[in-house]
Write a structure and sequence with these properties.
Number of strands: 7
Structural class: alpha/beta
Strand order of the largest sheet: 3-2-1-4-5-7-6
Radius of gyration: 17 Å
CATH class: Alpha Beta
CATH topology: Rossmann fold
Shape: globular
Distance between the termini: 42 Å
Number of domains: 1
Largest sheet: 7 strands, mixed
Strand content: 15-25%
Bound molecules: S-adenosylmethionine
CATH architecture: 3-Layer(aba) Sandwich
Length: 240
Amino acid sequence: MAHKVLTRFKERSSEQQEEVREWCASKVEPYISFLQSLDAELWLETQNTCSELKTSAEKKLQALGKDLGGGGNYHILYFMTRYLQAKEVVETGVAAGWSSQAILTALQKNENNGHLYSSDFPYFRYENPESLVGYVVEDELKENWSLYIDGDENNLPRIEKDIQAIDIFHYDSDKSYRGREYAYNCMAPYFTENTLIIFDDIQDNFHFRDWVEKTGHSYKIFEFENKFVGVAGGFLEKTE
Ligand SMILES: C[S@@+](CC[C@H](N)C(=O)[O-])C[C@H]1O[C@@H](n2cnc3c(N)ncnc32)[C@H](O)[C@@H]1O
């Protein structure tokens, strides 16, 4: 327990956060040129679809009149779900559902019966916070969606029962070192040599750096809205 508290304390110290940011900044590369180099036409599709997604999500949220926070880098998620023709996608952290909407839209476009499994824990300081999880997700996309809202520690063991091989894993929930490790260890048996693993907000602590050093995975770091996203997995090794 004392060790956990000390680790959390260190993670939050501004000194360590600065060090982590410096590490991320020293490795960062532009995500747009990377995605364009994979498939320029798909990047155009991604831009158009994500711009529609943004307009429609902002309209919904404006009408709701509540601040549910912004989304992660949903452009990467849309692009990669289409590019890899993903069938099983797992994400942690839903909030308003920008990432979920992007992945589900891409799965629908793939027309290959892909499914998204999402884990969240409602944190909004509003009445009935559960009703706000995934608020921007369109109803017509929900048939390919399993949403669990009891926290990763309860949700991931449930999700495990329904999956076989994860194509894309997107982590965007509890940002602590321990939370990231827990989710990774839980899902690791379902990763294949091609699974794309994405950790959001890797500037929060050294989890991503330590993990890539330990596993030897090839990785890329992208910047989005002054935050960093770490992307790794066998797929990247094939692009090198
Ligand atoms: C940054 S938001 C996710 C944003 C979302 N990916 C998007 O693009 O719209 C983080 C979410 O993770 C949830 N969360 C935090 N700790 C969690 C935990 N232990 N288990 C599951 N969800 C958690 C928060 O309640 C919040 O809804």
